[in-house]
Amino acid sequence: MKELSRRQLLKITAAGLVNGLAAACTLRFGPTPTVAPSPSETTIPTATSAPAPTAEPATRIINSPSPQAVAGTNPPDTPTPVAATSAAPDTPTAQPSPAAAETATPLPEALYPPDLQKEMAAAFDRFYPDFRDRYVLKDPVVPNALRVVKIDEDKSIVSEGQGYWELAAVIKGDMATFSGLLAHDLYPQYLNAAGLSKWQILADGSVPDPNSATDADLDQWFARHLAAQKNPQYQAESLRLAQAITAADISRPSGRLRPSNGWDGQYDAAYSSPGYYPLLKDETGNSIWDLVAATDRDFIDAIQAAFPNGKGLVPNWVQQSNPSQPGRADGLLFGWDAVRFPWRQAMAALWYPDNIAGQHAKKQLEKINAFFESQGAANIKAVYDLTGKPQNSYTAAAFVGAAACASIVSTNADYRTQIAETFLGNPSNTYFSDSLTLMYTALLGGLLPH
Q1: Residue 157 bridge partners (DSSP)
Q2: How far does the chain reach from its first CA to its final CA, in angstroms?
């Protein structure tokens, strides 16, 4: 039998990887929830009274935006009532979605070759339905709503996952799934007083922390911003959330992006989203987003200067008062938080190649890509210290995909192909890596419209 090429293998559907997995994973919310078919998008969920101002190990550190180091800064949990309407009929039915690759917007050829872009877009279409059936489940509390469950970790729901999957659903054109996720996020119990999603809902349905996580706030907003371009009925919700983020997630007068609406003092570079800031300025009409962008660039530069022997890899969490000091126990690692930095920087580099946002992002990617390229596509590991020493012997799609995002600045065509194929050929089958795989392939496939 003739041996298949690497590229041929990459095009084989990933559906067989997940057969039976969802049935093996149960959630303890009383009756075991079932995998949700796509509801129909019949009613647009609204927030009428909200303020409008990994193969990872099971012990992956969960992204908690409220560490004990800042205990006592959380506001009381007094969410503003929000009207969340039913997102779908009582008996939702699956709706076919078009191939997202058919709507791809060509990326600048100088930054990412057309053949790799097509391969990434096709991979997004290939992975989406299998990942959706695995992680997007019916909500046991909110009628006809959907939630993203970390089935391989602690069975909780986190706002970051809701944000990733809102984006993925809009990109796919699966507006029924988007509407179901939005109905969950606008449920009054899951919103805080600032009108933002509480960052975690435990497996038993309890909400231990009223605060948001700013990265999730931003991704949820961008998903709704894109949804409004498909259906103008989402415009009011997009604007509401943009105004809530502007009011609650920015420190004043500095203009520094806060890690959460409810606490401050630490910085995660992976929350930096320079691709979003000009869009938020346009939507809100508030020029503070120019200050956010400038402050963000300055602090990233300060982090890089604090580690002169580093490889351009950014730390998970540092102290805002001293970027050389860790904000958490694993703060000075390029780990499961920081791994998203190349993806967010690549957005800006691709969308704004001729202005300061894109040029600064490109510089960050050049440093990171130089490191990963020196390692070789087949040798990317999960978690590094800032000098480039691997902390684990295993790999994970979250990290290989991050290297693929950084490779948009590479001048080595062979390496770009190798890292893309290594990334697509090694799915991790975990909530976090699979969710990021959709985000990475969407960006590199030209599916994240600017």
Answers
A1: 201
A2: 45
Rounded Cα distance between 395 and 382, Å, is 5
SS3 state at 316 = coil
Class of the CATH domain delimited by 33-53+75-444? mainly alpha
In the predicted model, what is the mean pLDDT of residues 353-380? 97
Distance CA(202)–CA(183), nearest Å, equals: 18
The residues, ordered by sequence, that sit 6+ positions from 204 with a Cβ below 8 Å of its Cβ are 28, 29
| Distance between CA atoms of residues 18 and 427, nearest Å | 11
CA 430 vs. chain centroid, Å, equals 14
Residue 88 has pLDDT above 50, yes or no: no
Look at residue 114 and give its three-state secondary structure: helix
- Asked if the model's pLDDT at residue 353 lies above 70, the reply is yes
The residues with which 147 forms a beta bridge, in sequence order, are 137
Structural domain boundaries in the chain? 33-53+75-444
418 in Cβ contact with 404 (< 8 Å) = no
Distance CA 250, CA 212 (A): 13
Mean pLDDT over each residue of the chain, to the nearest integer: 83
Query: What residues contact 12, with CB distance under 8 A and at least 6 apart?
Result: none
Q: Which of 215, 240, 214 is nearest to 227 (CA)?
A: 240
Secondary element (H or E) of residue 200: strand 200-201
Question: Residue 385 is encoded by which pair of tokens?
Answer: 């210290």
Tokens in use for 378?
């087949």
Dihedral class, residue 195 (left if φ above 0, else alpha if ψ from -120 to 50, else beta) = left
Higher pLDDT residue, 39 or 234? 234
Beta-bridge partners for 318: 267, 326
What per-residue confidence (pLDDT) applies to 83? 37
Q: Among 78-87, 300-309, 395-404, where is mean pLDDT lowest?
A: 78-87
pLDDT in tens, 324-346: 999 999 999 999 999 999 999 99
Can you give the pTM of this predicted structure? Answer: 0.82
